[in-house]
Write a structure and sequence with these properties.
- With about 130 residues, the protein is an alpha+beta fold.
- The chain has a domain of about 90 residues: Alpha-Beta Plaits.
- The chain is built from 4 helices and 4 strands; from the N terminus they run H-E-H-E-E-H-H-E.
- The protein has a 4-stranded antiparallel β-sheet.
- Helix 2 runs antiparallel to helix 4.
- It is globular, with a radius of gyration of 20 Å.
Length: about 130
C-alpha cells in the first residue's frame, strides 16, 4: 500500500491529539441541567419573524444563571429518518442546578421574551435533562 504525504500528515495530526485528550480526563461533574427548546414559527417563511425570534432568544443570555447559551437554526445536514429539522429556532442552555433554571424561568427578561415573542411561534417543545 502506497503512503502519500497527505495520508502521512493526516495520521501525524491525529497522533498529536492523544496528549490533548489525556489533559481532559473524564470525571464526574456536579449536576448540570440542560434546557433545550425548539420553536416553530407561525410564519416560517418570514425572515423578519425569524430575526425577531433569534434576537429575543439571544437577549436571554443576560440572565445571570445561564452558564452557556447556543442559539441555532436547522443545519443543512444529510436528510435521514431520525433527523427532525422542521423547527425554526433552537436554544440550548446550561445551568449549574435546578435553582438556576428556576431563576431563569421566573426572571423578568424571560417573562418579557415570552410576552414579546410568543405571538411569533405556533409550537414550542422543551427538553430538560440533568446529568445521569
Amino acid at each position: 500500500m502506497k503512503t502519500t504525504r497527505r495520508k502521512f500528515l493526516a495520521g501525524a495530526s491525529l497522533l498529536t491529539l492523544a496528549p490533548a485528550l489525556e489533559a481532559y480526563p473524564m470525571k464526574k461533574e456536579k449536576p448540570v441541567l440542560v434546557h433545550h427548546v425548539f420553536f416553530w414559527l407561525k410564519n416560517p417563511g418570514s425572515k423578519e419573524d425569524l430575526a425577531k425570534l433569534i434576537a429575543g432568544v439571544k437577549s436571554l443570555s443576560k440572565i445571570e444563571t445561564i452558564q452557556y447559551i447556543h442559539v441555532g437554526v436547522p443545519a443543512s445536514t444529510e436528510q435521514r429518518d431520525v433527523v427532525d429539522n422542521s423547527y425554526s429556532v433552537s436554544e440550548l442552555m446550561f445551568f449549574k442546578d435546578l435553582a438556576g433554571q428556576k431563576t431563569y424561568q421566573d426572571h423578568p427578561l424571560h417573562q418579557k421574551f415570552i410576552a414579546e415573542c410568543s405571538p411569533l411561534w405556533e409550537k414550542v417543545i422543551v427538553y430538560d435533562t440533568i446529568n445521569g
